[in-house]
Description:
By secondary structure, the chain is an all-beta fold. Helix content is 2%, strand content 43%. The chain is built from one helix and 27 strands. It has one helix spanning 233-236; strands at 6-9, 17-20, 31-35, 41-44, 47-49, 55-59, 64-66, 70-72, 76-80, 85-87, 89-92, 101-105, 109-111, 113-116, 126-130, 135-137, 146-148, 152-156, 170-172, 179-183, 194-197, 201-206, 212-215, 226-231, 241-245, 250-255, 260-261. An eleven-stranded mixed sheet has the order 5-8-11-14-17-19-21-23-25-26-27. A ten-stranded parallel sheet has the order 1-3-6-9-12-15-18-20-22-24.
Amino acid sequence: GTFLPTLSTPSRTTGSVSIGNTEPLGASGNFSINQQGTGSLTLTGAVDRSNSGQINLTAANGSITALDALTARFGIAVSAPAGTLSLGQLSTGGGSSNGNITLQSSGDLTFASLLASAPSANSGNITISSGSGSVQTTADTIGNDVVGSGNVGISAGQAIGNGNFTNPLDIQSGVNNAVTLTAGFNIGALAKPVNVNTTGTIEVASTGGQYHVAATDGMASRPVKTIRLSASAACIGNANSATFTSADLDVTATGTGTSVDI
């Protein structure tokens, strides 16, 4: 059946909002929660909009926790511009023309896995932004943590990937699409890179740390079209390095504190 739950709290509201969702699987229609008050938003229970609809969660002045599965045909957007995001498994698409996933937070942003798919080359995009925190998965697993049929872009004020994991983060974009990683601190860790699978563009920039990224060449051994790497000598550090590896190209940038040797 069609279910169109919509909740919007006024800006004068104080305190946290907790919602338990018990809708049946296969419900259709949009699912929207807009917490405009001062406080966090917690959603428990899976939300399934795989047949029709999109999912929108917003907390204007707090954090969002939604650890159960979120599934939507037309896209998922979760925003906490003044807080953190703690999310579970998110998936979109199933033949829709949109299927984008957009995540935004001020602080740390964590998730179990992300899957965005759409038949159009301009859709199935995944955009993740943490203004002053890190972007990390919650489990150290083998296999792709982030899969988009379009472009994948991740921006973090701190680190991208959990450097304590054996597999900090695995990413796959669509054929000929781009993966863009921009961080204020480290991307991956030495000998534990962020793995990227694409045949399009890989763009990596660490403005305050090191990058360790590997192109996995997993798409029928087709080569990456363009590679752009950026890090400063001061942030790499004396005798430290930033690395990029692939099947036929390895780049190691070694810092001296004032310059970089490649």
